[in-house]
């Protein structure tokens, strides 16, 4: 019998995540989640922050992370990242088909593995989307977070109508006293690596290509929906219906071996996975 179980979704003020496989459930290892509901702790002000959407961490994102980590270490500052909820694509086009490469708690767990001290999770709502670029900088980067340095990709845009660009960010950085690094695109086989490119690979069933662009495994949390049947987060992108070879893993980091699963047209996964399986892993 198939049982429908709602997918868990984080909400402002109640964000949480389970540690990723291999990450101990220790407050010393887990980053602080800040959604602007309360003042940022003083020890996390003055961070080096990656700005963007960061749907998972692919090779391009890791180039930004590598630079930000170097700056943070050299200056003795916390390392932080911006991760809007909901994703801006969902806000502007609520009818979109599921597109997220990494959802909910799994998204934050993956970021935790990157050694971050702070994950800033602004609520992407009508007010946030309407902020002029300079207001975004002054209200959040300067007053709210007091960033010491920001790292962005070449295509970074911000503020109402995506009017803010890297030139304006550099100009305002000089005015307010924070550094700015703009990292060149990472190219693979002639293509600029982006979340959109990875999504297209997934939609085409090219999971090996998607894993290569990510630069590591692609993990999808699963939730039991009946005998040998599982469902995924409502916004989780999936490959086309078919049969796939994956690894299964449990919540505390154990690799449960290789398995074959089916993906159905109704977005349910089927297969004889171990009872403790909490994720399927491509790659």
TrEMBL record:
<comment type="similarity">
    <text>Belongs to the RibF family.</text>
</comment>
<keyword id="KW-0808">Transferase</keyword>
<keyword id="KW-0288">FMN</keyword>
<feature type="domain" description="FAD synthetase">
    <location>
        <begin position="43"/>
        <end position="196"/>
    </location>
</feature>
<keyword id="KW-0547">Nucleotide-binding</keyword>
<keyword id="KW-0067">ATP-binding</keyword>
<dbReference type="InterPro" id="IPR015864">
    <property type="entry name" value="FAD_synthase"/>
</dbReference>
<dbReference type="GO" id="GO:0009231">
    <property type="term" value="P:riboflavin biosynthetic process"/>
</dbReference>
<dbReference type="Pfam" id="PF06574">
    <property type="entry name" value="FAD_syn"/>
</dbReference>
<dbReference type="InterPro" id="IPR023468">
    <property type="entry name" value="Riboflavin_kinase"/>
</dbReference>
<keyword id="KW-0274">FAD</keyword>
<feature type="region of interest" description="Disordered">
    <location>
        <begin position="1"/>
        <end position="20"/>
    </location>
</feature>
<keyword id="KW-0548">Nucleotidyltransferase</keyword>
<dbReference type="GO" id="GO:0009398">
    <property type="term" value="P:FMN biosynthetic process"/>
</dbReference>
<dbReference type="GO" id="GO:0006747">
    <property type="term" value="P:FAD biosynthetic process"/>
</dbReference>
<comment type="pathway">
    <text>Cofactor biosynthesis; FAD biosynthesis; FAD from FMN: step 1/1.</text>
</comment>
<dbReference type="InterPro" id="IPR014729">
    <property type="entry name" value="Rossmann-like_a/b/a_fold"/>
</dbReference>
<protein>
    <recommendedName>
        <fullName>FAD synthase</fullName>
        <ecNumber>2.7.7.2</ecNumber>
    </recommendedName>
</protein>
<dbReference type="GO" id="GO:0008531">
    <property type="term" value="F:riboflavin kinase activity"/>
</dbReference>
<keyword id="KW-0285">Flavoprotein</keyword>
<dbReference type="GO" id="GO:0003919">
    <property type="term" value="F:FMN adenylyltransferase activity"/>
</dbReference>
<keyword id="KW-0418">Kinase</keyword>
<dbReference type="GO" id="GO:0005524">
    <property type="term" value="F:ATP binding"/>
</dbReference>
């Amino acid at each position: 019998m198939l049982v429908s179980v709602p997918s868990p979704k984080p909400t402002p003020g109640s964000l949480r995540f389970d540690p990723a496989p291999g990450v101990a459930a220790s407050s010393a290892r887990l980053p602080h989640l800040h959604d602007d509901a309360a003042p940022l702790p003083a020890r996390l002000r003055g961070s080096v922050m990656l700005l963007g959407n960061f749907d998972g961490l692919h090779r391009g994102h890791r180039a930004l992370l590598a630079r930000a980590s170097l700056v943070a270490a050299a200056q003795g500052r916390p390392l932080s990242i911006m991760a809007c909820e909901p994703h801006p694509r969902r806000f502007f086009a609520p009818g979109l088909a599921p597109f997220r490469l990494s959802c909910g708690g799994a998204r934050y767990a993956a970021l935790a593995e990157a050694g971050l001290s702070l994950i800033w999770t602004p609520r992407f709502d009508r007010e946030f989307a309407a902020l002029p670029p300079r207001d975004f900088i002054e209200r959040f980067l300067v007053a709210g977070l007091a960033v010491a340095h920001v790292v962005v990709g070449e295509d970074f845009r911000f503020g109402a109508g995506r009017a803010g660009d890297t030139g304006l960010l550099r100009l305002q950085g000089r005015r307010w006293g924070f550094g700015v690094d703009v990292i060149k695109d990472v190219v693979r086989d002639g293509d600029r690596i982006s979340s959109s490119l990875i999504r297209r690979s997934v939609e085409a069933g090219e999971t090996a290509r998607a894993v290569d662009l990510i630069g590591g495994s692609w993990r999808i949390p699963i939730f039991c929906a009946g005998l040998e049947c599982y469902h995924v987060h409502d916004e989780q992108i999936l490959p086309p219906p078919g049969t796939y070879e994956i690894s299964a893993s449990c919540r505390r980091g154990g690799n449960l071996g290789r398995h074959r699963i089916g993906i159905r047209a109704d977005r349910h996964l089927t297969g004889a996975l171990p009872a403790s399986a909490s994720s399927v892993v491509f790659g």
